[in-house]
Structure formats: structure tokens, C-alpha cells
Design a protein that fits this description.
Layout (H helix, E strand, L loop, with lengths): L1 H18 L1 H4 L1 E3 H4 E3 L5 E10 L11 H13 L14 E10 L8 E8 L10 E8 L5 E8 L1 E2 L2 E4 L5 E4 L4 E10 L12 E6 L4 H15 L4 E5 L2 E5 L8 H8 L3 E3 L5 E5 L4 E4 L4 E2 L2 E5 L2 E12 L11 E12 L3 E5 L5 H9 L5 H14 L2 E2 L1 E4 L1
Parallel strand pairs: 16-24
Antiparallel strand pairs: 1-15, 2-12, 3-4, 3-6, 4-5, 5-11, 6-7, 7-11, 8-11, 9-10, 12-14, 13-14, 16-17, 18-23, 19-22, 20-21
Helix pairs in contact: 1-7
Amino acid sequence: MAGKRLVTILLALAFLGSAFTDSASAARLKDITNIQGVRDNQLIGYGLVVGLLKTGDDQKILFTIQSLASMLSRMGVKINAGELRPRNVAAVVVTANLPPFSTVGSRLDVQVASIGNAKSLVGGTLLMTPLKGADGRVYAMAQGQIITGGYSFGGESGTGVTKNHPTVGSIPNGSIIEREVRYAINDRADIILTLMRQDFTTAVNMAETINDYLEGPYAMARDGGSVKLRVPGEYQSRVVTLIAKIEGLEVETDRRAKVVLNERTGTVVMGSDVRLSTIAISHGSLKIKINNQYNVSQPGPFSSGGKTTVTPSSDISAVEEKSRMAVVKGAVTIGDVVMSLNSIGVSPRDLINILQALKAAGALEAEMEVI
């Protein structure tokens, strides 16, 4: 039954793929490429979370005590670090992504994670934390109330209940950008468009589409992963306008044939370009049935030393289905592949094993990925 459902789903996908071939094989340039040099920048910082309900770091975490003492010292509070015994403070690492073209004063979401032995960050507040880039410069300042997706509660006896990860949280709009990353994009003489999925055919199609739109040989595929676009004279110092005009162009895309197998769930997903060479397949299975029964043996009347005994009785039978040799002709579409394999009565689990054997035999003309 499961095999029939799988075949029905795959045949439906094959029908939809053949019915909408033109729209499915074309994509907007902005959906399949990135502009080289325009990217996010990762930020990181070290800070303190306060206001916890006895769920913070204990005295074993010395860097939390030292950080708290150092912060209080900068605020004019003179105290010996050895005298601090807080349980409502936790040391954390704060991370964020700085998007391209972000301006000073804009806000970013930040993620907070404990690095000590705090049990929970629920109800905590992150104190002002500088966030630095890979160059060591401060690009944002983070502070605010932490939102966690879990909780942890415990009693004096040591028992408790925990859900999800209470030592990890986030602060929406919790940081303010203090420094910008400059992108002098309008000053560029050329642009490198990088494909998210490398493919030589797609790269050539993209260059031809751009040249047709600009009416000149401005774009050239450098390799299977990038296209170099020379900025036309009319768009000098107006590169942003050029990108806005070409990013909506429809590009004919191509891809490698691929089969994805999930052995844990028995899921098989095949692309519409998967093909099979003509090959013979033998498919059969062995079924073993074991039926256990228990017999009770009792001693005769007035016997001495006799005991009641339970004796098992097993009935084992083995049935092997007749193996069939079937010839699967070269298939062109995913529908043909599924119908050919279904003709010999395979289940989803058997389909995975057969596809792996076909790949090993060189008859499956597709890339295989097991997840």
C-alpha cells in the first residue's frame, strides 16, 4: 500500500513537471545569483546577563565573577572579586549578522548563548555588549530583554523539568549599528554575478540573456559558477540602476539529474531528468514466520518430587517468493522510471535498494545522495 502511495505521488510530480516545463526551467536572475562582495558580516561579543532567578553561573565559573567585578569597577564600585557570590548573573556570547548596506542607527536581531554553567536565561537582561567584526572593530552595541524558547525549573532535592534549550535566547532588534560597512558599488567598472548552484549551462544562458537585454557583448561566463558583467557606458556611476534592471530577467536554468534517498523514512525523491539505461532486474524476498506456543506439563497424581513445567513449542515456516527477472527499458522521464520499477512490484524500501544497485551497476544516470 505504501508503495502505491509513493508511486502515485511521484507520478503526480512527474505530470506537474511535464505540464509546466517552461515555467519550472526559468528563474529570475535575482533568485539564482549573488553579487560578489555584497554579503552579510558576522559579529560577536562577550557580555553578562543579569536578573536571573538563581539560575546563573555559580562560583566555579571564575570569568563570570571577574567580569562582574570589572564592570562594577568601571562604574565606580570598588569590590573584591572574591567577595562576590551572585547566582543571578551569567556570562554569554552574543552573535549577530550585519546585512550589507546597513546604516548607522539601524537595529539588528541578536542571539545570546550561555558559556558557563547557568541553568537558564529565562527572565534575564543582557547588559550593554559591544559586537565586533573579524577585523576587531566594534560595529554594533547590544542590550535588552532576552526571549528564550524553553524553561528549566528545579527543586531543592535536585529534581526538575526542562524544555527545549533555556540557555539560548534572542533579542529582537536588540542591537544598534554604530559603524557601517562601505560598499562603493556605483564606482565599479564590472560586476561578478555568482551562481548559488554551479552549472555551466545556466551560466552561459545567463550571459546570453543579459547581452540580449543590453544589446551588446557585456556579459561573459567566466566558469560554471560566475558571470562577469562589464558596466555599459550609460550606466557608469549608476550600477545600482543596472542591477535593478537585470535582476528581474528570466534565465533558462539547468541542473544535474539527482536522486535523494532517506533510508530512515523510506523516502525517495527523483528529479525530472533522472534516466535509466536498459537493464535486467531480479527482485524477490524471503518471508519467515515464527509461531510460539507454550504447553504446561503437570506430574501425575500422588507423585513425589514432581513439578509443573512450562515447555515452549515453536512452529517455524519460511516462504520465499519466486524471484522474477524483469527487463527495464531505457527510461526518459521520472514517470517512466517509476512505472518501470513499479512493474516488478517494489516497495519504497525495496526501491531504495534497487536504486543503489542500479547506481553501482552504472545504469542510473543521475547523482545519488543519501540523507
